[in-house]
Amino acid sequence: MVKPIAIQGVKGSFHHQVVENYFDMTSEVHESLTFDNAVESLLSGKSDAMVMALENSIAGSIIPNYALIDTNNLQIVGEYYLDVQHNLMALHGETMDTIKEVHSHPMALLQCKVFFKDFPHIKLVEAKDTAEVALKIKEQNLSGIAAIASATAAKLYDLKILAKSIQTIKHNETRFAIVKRENSKIERNSINKASLKFELDHKRGSLATILNVMSDCKLNLTKIQSLPKIDTPWKYAFFVDVTFNTYNDFEKALAIIKIMAENFKLLGEYKNARL
Q1: Per-residue pLDDT reduced to its tens digit, 59-106
Q2: Cβ atoms of residues 247 and 191 within 8 Å
Q3: Beta strands, E only, the chain
Q4: 23 with 55, same domain?
Q5: Distance of CA 130 to CAs 37, 49, 74, 265, Å?
Q6: Beta-strand pair 193-199/123-126
Q7: Using an 8 Å Cβ cutoff, are 92 and 154 in contact?
């Protein structure tokens, strides 16, 4: 029996769109209001895979999600870049003049805040999920309330799109990780990207030395994110993404980094979705 794929949000969310695009249109989803709940469904075996947003080209990294992958010993087995188009939607018959409040995820509100400068009468209200607001508007017949969500959500919940692509920067991408409990099973010669986590002593040149190893071994650093260690003040864990042409180059770098860094962890090996 094929188990559903865990997502944060409900059907019509951007996470749901990634499921349809990365897997297939008929894939079932396990809806969760929070990333923690989605991870729990994965750990408990209710789902075999999870789609998790990691970073956005406008708003940056979603740092708590890096910590979720790390602390729960999950593995990134793939990635997907989604062109995120934010649309303003409400019940049929509504106009910009009748809308009093717009509810959406904080990230969506941040990406669209310039649009609302022309509508000072509208109050922006944070919510847990974009598509969930659209669903509530439909189910509860909420007048005067609008949602920022995908065109898929508007179609799914029969809402009127009042304004299309209202995000400040029109080219707006979010990188999603495909996460499982175990490492990727793809062939070695197909792997050309990896996610790593390690810690370093707080001394001069420690990070530069690691980066030099990556460069010498022909790895391309595509992402570096630091996260403070709560139990050790002023010490940081580094989350790093690298790409490479051959797996042998990656193996050489890995052998050296494991010796030089503390608490090294391989968070996943997978195909680079940018190629």
Answers
A1: 788 889 999 999 999 999 999 999 999 999 999 999 999 999 999 999
A2: yes
A3: 5-8, 29-32, 49-56, 60-61, 75-83, 87-90, 101-104, 123-126, 145-149, 160-163, 173-180, 193-199, 220-228, 236-243, 262-270
A4: yes
A5: 17, 22, 26, 33
A6: unpaired
A7: no
Q: Read off the pTM.
A: 0.89
CATH code of the domain in which 69 resides: 3.40.190.10
d(CA 90, CA 126): 16
Average pLDDT for 224-229: 87
Number of alpha helices (DSSP H) and beta strands (DSSP E) in the chain: 8, 15
What tens digit of pLDDT does each residue of 110-124 get?
Answer: 989 999 999 999 999
Domain carrying residue 20: 5-83+173-180
Tell me the C-alpha to C-alpha distance, in Å, between residue 238 and each of 58, 64, 66, 118, 270.
21, 13, 10, 41, 19
d(CA 181, CA 63): 20
Pairwise CA distance, residues 196 & 170, whole Å: 31
Q: Is residue 275 assigned to a domain?
A: no
Alpha carbon distances (Å) from 43 to 37, 102, 146, 267: 10, 34, 35, 16
Q: What is the DSSP letter of 9?
A: B
Domain presence at residue 245: yes
The values of phi and psi at residue 12, to 5°, are 100, -10
pLDDT interval class at 275 (50, 70, 90): low
Token readout for 95 is 């106009």
